[in-house]
């Protein structure tokens, strides 16, 4: 971080809410949880004033350097050595600058093992990502003119009226409002997860499609050779079964969300279900960790014997598919090659490729 400073914008003890805010708070009735009061008083207040205000910020510049190194290299070196290598590579990043380049001592093996080097800067002129210490220095000098908000402290608005009856009502309303927003968001995330699972549960078996060269038509056949990521013929059924099982496991939680959200038609109170919120969040998080895990693409190749294809036979291709130049008919080919094809799956979450789940993620 560069030129960082913290500023308390609005000390709570010195901050006085304006009259319109206080009038809006007073207008919220004690029976705020009725659908009529919620729609007529609570929602307008939240839309106008929100739930929190910022009273402290930390601003300045932020420079982030990240080096992602192959696991084999990391396991072969200690943490102290890795830190030193990363520091040296950071200097080597400014290779256009002779002084920095000369002082860099990261081993060539370290640099070759890098799969990704990323530099990001927030604040300033935004031009820190360049191979020059002069450019970096210019970015540092510009931070005080164009600071970035690094962090902020949020205070609930009900803290402005803490000891009044209206403050107690506003606190209850704020908790309920955030809770309803949260469960609605969880429902949206769960719906997206279920849609993805439904797609994977319906994956078709791998079918190798190819274009027969020349005048021969398109066709398809089974894959016979699996790619390096595994045999799709064995893995696709596992993916389907895992996806369907996990989809079924989401049914109880989905039903609870529907029941909870449906209760808003009679009352906006949250006391009855709020204790479940923590477990709900964790359940959706666990499901998302599976559905959105690192993707893998399955691949395979196939072969088709075209000796019985009537069109290919017509043009003299009795044993193989013809290898021809553009515009040349199949029977005019100078060479005949085997008909081969390749198949690739959509990206599949890696955790869906594992053996079937033995227990529900959510109970």
UniProtKB/TrEMBL annotation:
Pfam entry (one): MACPF
InterPro entries found in the cross-reference section: MACPF
Domain MACPF: start-end pairs: 1-194
Name the record gives this protein: MACPF domain-containing protein
Organism: Symbiodinium necroappetens
